[in-house]
Structures are given as C-alpha cells and as structure tokens.
Amino acid sequence: MSGYAVSVRDLTVRYGRTIAVDNVSFDLEPDGIYGLLGRNGSGKTSTLSVLASMRRPAAGSVLIDGVEPFENERIMAGVSLIRESGDVLTNEKIAASLSYYEQARPTWDAAFADELVDAFGLNRKKPISTFSRGQRSAFGAVIGLAGRAPLTMFDEVYLGMDAPSRYRFYDLLLADYAEHPRTIILSSHLISEIERLFSGVVIIDGGRLLLNEEVEDFRTRGATLTGPAAQVDAVTTGLRVVASRSLGPTKEVTVYGDLDGAALDAARAAGVAIGGVGVQDLFVHLTEKESR
Amino acid sequence: MFDGREPIYIQIADQIRGDILAGHLAEGEQVMSTTQYATTYRINPATAAKAFAQLVDEGVLYKQRGVGMFVAEGAPAQLRAARRETFLEELLEPVLAEARVLGITTSELTRWIERSSAESDLTATNTTTEGEQR
Amino acid sequence: MTSAAPLWARTAGRMTRASLVSLAWFWAVCVIAGTAVTLVLDWRLGEPPFSIMSTIRYGGIWYPFSVALIVVSATINVHVAAGLTRRSFVIGAVISNVVIGVVNGVAMTAVLVIERGIYLDQGWSHAATSAAPIPEAWGVSLVFHCVMFLAGGLSGLLVGLTYYRWGVWATAALPLTVLPPIIASGLDPAALTVAVIAATTAATAVASYALARTIPIRKPLEIS
C-alpha cells in the first residue's frame, strides 16, 4: 500500500469565536515527507485534527485519497495522527495500547512495534502514567511508525524527546519510509534538524497559509547576500527582503523570491558573497514579518 | 554538509563526483544505495535518488538491477576532462579578470603560479619520503 | 483476529470482555458480603428482616453506570486516534452495555431465586423493603432487573458523552441524562414501570448515538 494524497480546500476551523484556521488550501502529493511549519498557535494542530477526523471543519473540506475522511471507515483506518500528549491507555502498560492499535489498524506491524519499543528502551512493565514526557513521546513515535498508515502525521512529537532519541526517531522514520513509502507530515516550529528530510513544506501563520512549496524551490529562493552596504543595497532593491543586519560597513541581507542568474552574477562581481539559507531560518524570517 | 544554495541533489552529485576524482571511489566500485545514503546523511530518499539518477544519466554511475549502483569504467577520466573545462572557464577566468582590474601583470601571475607549484611539489615529495621511511 | 467482523462488533466484543472481568469481581464481592450480612443478621436477630441480596440492585445500576462513564473519557480518543469511527465506538458501547445489563439481570435473578429457596427452607419470609420490591415470578424478575441495569449502563454512557462534549456545562443536562436509572431504582416492578424505563433507556441509546457521531476528540489531559 502506498501513501494517500491530501487536498485541503478553504479549510476553516473555529473554537467558539476563535478562528484557529482561516480559509486554508493546499495539496500534498502521495509519498512525500512534508513539513507543516508554523509558530505555536498558528493552526497546525487544528489542521491536522481535521485531517485525522478528530474534529469537523467549520467551513471548507479536506480530501484524503479523494474522499472526505470524517467517519469514513476505510480512510480513517489509513490515517494516523500522533499528538504530543499521546492517545494511549495511560493507566495500563504499553502492551494494552499496542494491542488496541494492532486490532484497529490493518497496516500495523506488531514485530516492528516490538523492535521500536526496544530501540527506544521503553519499560514494558510499568503503566504509561509513570513515563516521562520524553518516554511518552517515544511511545507515540512507536505507534506512529508501527502503524504504517498511508497518511502518517506527527504533531510536534519529537519535541519532548532528548537529542539521542530524536535522532533515533529520524533514522528509524527514514529507514522505514524508504522501505514502505507513505505520505508523512511532520509538524513543528523547530525543524533545523530535519529540514533535509522534507520533500515539501507548508507554512501557516496566524491560521492562514503562507506558503506551500517543494522544498528545493523553497530553499533556492532564499539567499543571504553579504558585502559592502552600498553594493548589497544596490543588488537587493526590488527583491523581497525578509531579514537584514548591518555589521559596520558590511551588510547581510536575506532575500526570498525568484532570483535571476544575471543579477546574482552582477552581485558576485560587485564583491557580494551569496550564501544559502536553511529552511528553519527562512521560516523564522517569513513568520516574523507576516505576523505583524 | 549540503549548506550551499544549490538544490541538495546537485550538491550530493557534486560530492560523489568529488569522491570519484579524489580516488575515494574506484572504477567498478559499488556506491551506497539511495536508502543508505538518505539515512546516513538524513536527507529525503527522493532527493538522493534524484542525484544518483543524474549521475547515471551522465554515465558516471551505472545501475545493475537488483544489485546496486557502481562507478562506471572511465568515470574518473571523464570527470577530470569535464572539470578541466569548467576549471579554466569558471574558476580561472574570474581570477584573471580580477587580476586585470588590480593591474597584476601576466608575468607576476606566472611567477606566483610557478612558486606555488614548486612548494606543493616539495610538500608532496616530503610526504612520500616520510611515508617511505616509516 | 476476527478482522472480517464489522468494526462495531469488534468494539462491542472488546468492551464486553473487558467489563466481564470486573463484573465477575463485582458479583463475587457482593455475594460474599451479602452472605456475611445474612449470617450476622441470622445470628443477632434470628432472622434477616428482608432479602439482603435484593439490595445489590443499587450496585448493579450504579457500578456499570460509572464504568460506562469512565470508558468514554478514557478510550474514545484512543479509539478515534487508532483510526476507528465514532459510530463503531458508540454502537459497540451500546451493545456492550446491553450485554452487561442482561448478564447482570440474569445474575441478580439467579441470586434472588437461590436466596428465596434458602429463606423458605429456613422458614424465613423472603420479603422486600418498600424501596426494593421483588417480583415473585422469576420471569418478571428477570425482565425487571435487566431493564433496570441497562438503564444504569446506558445512562453512564450518555453522561460520559455529554461531559466529554460540553465539559462542566453537561451538568445542566444531568436531570435528563440520569433520569432512567433514577426512575429504575425507585419504582416497583409493574408492567408500566418497566415500559417507562425501557422507553427512556432506548431514548438514552439514541441520544448517545446522535451525540457521539460528531463529537470532537479533545487533547488528552497532560498528566506530567
């Protein structure tokens, strides 16, 4: 089984009078690893909740594999959202939750789940309520990976883990994804460690869609231009400047947009150094600007 | 690693080309699989696959179904020839242009190049003799 | 793995199996305690003043009530997060509560029939308190107790769902949501009473279904 395509159409999610997601639309091709980026409270979790049939949209719709997922047995069985707080049987040992998920998910791999429990060094003999935040996150990772759902989403799951566990998670995810391709969405505001895993990024800010692009396009549109202030200003006029700082006579400017080759050659000739910008940096710059 | 502005798959392809030129990867030697490459460097497997596909298209690597990918016979020579061309055009030309702007004469440049080559030859001989002494 | 069975049937099966274990303990404890009380009263008063076992009915109503309530708040998020529908959850829960209600009704009737035999054998009168009447015919007793216990379990399910959906505001709906077991625990086993309890219980099941189909799944409470 391969991954599901995702289509979000004019999605609006409300909590009482608060609008969490405001008219957001984007499409994701099957079998990619996508980053859903946004600052805290930007509407990431609400968007994922609708995809996972945890709640219904106030307006608009989502289509998974071409079908509205809410209360659809086939689609829901193939969609998995791992929330940081963990949807598990808290007062019991992990075996109880594992068996619940095993009987529910047709794609579940019990042997893989066992391997993962060992890989993360989780205690099988104690109830989950005694676990630390990091251990709970790791158990969430186990459930998300072993489920092998055609649409698997992790909502900030790795934030609670310590660095070794996080890297273990990335490696296990990547190795398993290579063997069993599926559509994966990782949501976070901290992505520098994993930005090269993404095939595409969706950025939402203040409940609105800021950007939905292939990651290579996204990266190549950003650049840092460093050099004498006058020259830098000359080459960046007319470009979308997302960040700028001066270091005496030297200026460093981060731009975002279509950069044409001729302009870049001219900049180089004028003694301006051109460097890359990480997805994390671009994301921070873009959301800083837009939220004002 | 892979911090440049170019798409990552181009940087990966460049890195493999570099490894072949430097002799870290010999002719006929098997290269890492896409999956191994992706997990080792924590990059998207599709990105790694794109880099490998480009190298296969160029004839630098060849695919053996079910076994893996290998460095093509003659790949180092082919890469060296291609690099020589780009070296002169893309690296040396701007240097010469800059030299012209600064008023550095051709004879000054030649003297510099000769001295620097002599130094690097000397260090090369030294390392070999040291190596032989051990 | 009975993966061919529909989701609601599998859900009902799992919920019922989980409840039956705790129910076995419930009956063991009740019967042992009831027997002890009977023996003490026999020893102190020479004769128990009324059917001791008939008082188990309150536990039979409110114990399944609280279990059903807890099952909603502790497992509906896991159920949906595991990719199962709310429909299968609520149908499974209703069926499971019906099965549990019937099992409890049968157990209650059996215990009373046995107790009645012992009382009559001892020459005691198997009377009931005015608050806890006992039908003499075991068939009537069976229907009466089944409906009574069903009312408790299903009401627990509905109360659990209203609190899951509306939080503290669900308290306003309590007079309605706990109506069936309140009626059931107070009235005598006339045919009309049984009919009223059965009707309100059925309404509870329908309300639970309507409420659950669109219920938003909250973030589980952070415990750390």
UniProtKB/TrEMBL annotation, chain A:
PROSITE patterns: ABC_TRANSPORTER_2 (PS50893)
Top-rank lineage group of the source organism: Bacteria
Pfam families named in the record: ABC_tran
Residues covered by the ABC transporter domain: 6-231
InterPro entries on file: AAA+_ATPase (IPR003593), ABC_transporter-like_ATP-bd (IPR003439), ABC_Transporter_VariousFunc (IPR051782), P-loop_NTPase (IPR027417)
GO molecular function, one term: ATP binding
Keywords, alphabetical: ATP-binding, Nucleotide-binding, Transport
Protein name: ABC transporter ATP-binding protein
Natural source organism: Occultella gossypii
UniProtKB/TrEMBL annotation, chain B:
Keyword entries, A-Z: DNA-binding, Transcription, Transcription regulation
Keyword Transcription regulation in annotation: yes
UniProt xrefs under SUPFAM superfamilies: Winged helix' DNA-binding domain (SSF46785)
Cross-referenced Pfam families: GntR
SMART domains: HTH_GNTR
Domain annotation HTH gntR-type: ranges: 6-74
PANTHER family, per the entry: GNTR-FAMILY TRANSCRIPTIONAL REGULATOR, HTH-TYPE TRANSCRIPTIONAL REPRESSOR YTRA
The protein, known as: GntR family transcriptional regulator
Lineage: Bacteria, Bacillati, Actinomycetota, Actinomycetes, Micrococcales
TrEMBL record, chain C:
UniProt entry tagged with the keyword Membrane: yes
The organism's place on the tree of life at top rank: Bacteria
Source organism per UniProt: Occultella gossypii
Transmembrane regions: 20-41, 61-82, 89-114, 137-159, 166-184, 190-212
Protein name, as recorded: Uncharacterized protein
Keywords: Membrane, Transmembrane, Transmembrane helix
